[in-house]
Each structure stands twice: as structure tokens, then as C-alpha cells.
Amino acid sequence: MNPFSPMATTYTLAASTSNAQVAIPGSAPAVRVFNSTSVVVFIQFNMTSGVVASVASSLPIAPGAVEVFAIAPNTAYVSAITAAGAGDVYITRGDGL
Question: What is the pTM of this model?
Fold first, then answer.
């Protein structure tokens, strides 16, 4: 397993109790997610625009956590929502886990 190597710009997603989405162009097979907020952020990887994240069913990212995920090359968006509070989530495409 290779360590994560960034291959694109880092994108900022402003997470809050309203659904937010950011485009993550490229085809790198992994994504690094840093939740800089003080609350749990729920994220959803999407191939098309308009898909929303859900507190009930999306992937929770702990406050302050850094996680790396393998994703499909055609993943083009990340959506996020919080149950309470707000803050920035940083997303970077790359290779490795």
C-alpha cells in the first residue's frame, strides 16, 4: 500500500446544516478528506451534481479527522451536511491510501 500522494488542488467545502457540494475534477483513484470543524460532518461521493448528503445515511467524518478513501475515477462531486454547527472540510484527490 502506497502513502497518499496529492495529484490535484485541495477543494474547500463549507459544511453546515444545509446541504453543500463541491466539484472534485480529475480521475485520481483516492481522495483525502480533512474535517476541520468541531462537529461530525456527513459526506457523500457523487458522480453527478445535485446528490445530497444525509445525516441519517451518509458517511460520518469525526471532528478533526483526516481520512483517505478509494473512489471511482468518475466521482465528480462531494456533498456534505452537519447535524449542527458549521465549518470547512478540505478534499484532495490523489493516489494511495
Answer: 0.95
